[in-house]
Structures are given as structure tokens and as C-alpha cells.
Amino acid sequence: MGLLIDVLSGQLALTGVDLSRADSLAAEPCRGLVDNLSEVVYVHDLEGNFLSANKAIQPLTGFSREEVLRMRLADLLVPESADLALRMTANNLGSGSRSTYEIGILRRDGRPLRLEAFCGPFMSAEEFGELETMRAAGLGVHRFTPALIDYLAVADLSISLAGYNTCMNLLNTGVPALVLPYSRQREQPWRVQKLIGCLPMIVLGADDLEAERIASFIERGLELQRRVGPSSVNLDGAAATARLLADL
User: Fold this and answer.
1) How far apart are CA 31 and CA 126, in angstroms?
2) Collapsed DSSP state (helix, strand, coil) of residue 71
């Protein structure tokens, strides 16, 4: 919040917005500027009662802005994070300094929000470094893991392209998925069309990658149920191929 105010203060001062007021985010033009941000911005008092919040609070938490404004900060955080947030707020107010710290968020259904991002070997070092700077409580950023299928086995939702190995892992684990077929290849859109009835899956298009749209799809994806039982697709291809060759 301090950084945001520093960036906007020059513009807002010209319009007469008093940034020292608790309800400043609700006033125009501040509200218009803040509401267009994809990042969550909120203000709370010393007891943790929310005084204002922008629209990005809803896709992150599952609560509407109106609901959040009737809540306290502790209602949205895991217990250890709630204590830390209020303690750091008090320290910053007393010293006039700023600090960065990580907090864990609880969604509407009471589950802690955790995201593990695996970027792959082809992302540039610069882009990967930018993502790493966003690392926070509940957000992990990795190049690669040899245990991806183990992550998928316990995940609530997978978000990915529709490559062969990825789709085989989705079929194997039955995890709900958002998939974006790579449009420059014929195989990925074709593969998704063949598999769409075999998985709890939502197919995304390029226009769905805008922040608010992808957030709404994540909300829908988290409502999907993991497939129970084995896949309807025979995943024992290696053994089946060996048997067919042996029978020639």
C-alpha cells in the first residue's frame, strides 16, 4: 500500500484526495485507479477491520468486496499470518518505516491458498527472475520438478498447456484442470478435443489470460470434482504395444 501511494500520490494530490484518510481508496479518482489494478489493495484499522479494498480481493479470496468490508484481517489469514500482519503494522506505525513480509491467505471455503508454479527450461532467466521476486507465502516458483505427478495427485487444480506428457499426467491423476492448447500446433487443440470428455477440464482461449478472466476460471475450476476411479483411457500403452508386437 505504501508503494502504491508513493506512485500515485503526485496525481492524486492534484485532485485533492487526502491519502491520510482511512476511506481514501473509496474516493474518486483514487477508487478508479486502484480498482483497475490486478494486485490486491486494502486498508484496515489497528484492530484489523477492513475499511476499503479493491476489486481484486474477490478472485483471490472468494469473498465479494462488500463481504470483505464486514470482516477483519484475521478472517482471511491463517492464524500465524494474522498475528504477524497486525504486529508488523503496529511496528511500522511506531517507527515510520516499511517492511515486506509473507502472509498465508484462507479462501472462502476455509482452505489455505497455495500455488506452485513450474516454469520449465525454456523461460528466459530474466522472466524467471521476475517471477521469483513475486515469491511469497503460499506461492512457490520453480524451474522443474521430477515429482510433478505427485503434486498433481494432491492438487485441487492444474493450470497448463496441453502437451502430451501433461495430458497423460492429468489422465493418470484425474485432477481438475484448466488447459490452454498451444494454438500454433495442431496437435494440442486436437488432443484436448479428444480428451475433453475424459477429464474434469475447462479449455481456455488466448483471451482468457487477462487477470480477472483467469481468476474467474480458477474459481470455476476449484469447484470441479476430481475424477474417481481409473481413467476411461487405457494408459498402459507400453505393455499393450509390446503384446501386439509379440503377436505379429
Assistant:
1) 33
2) coil
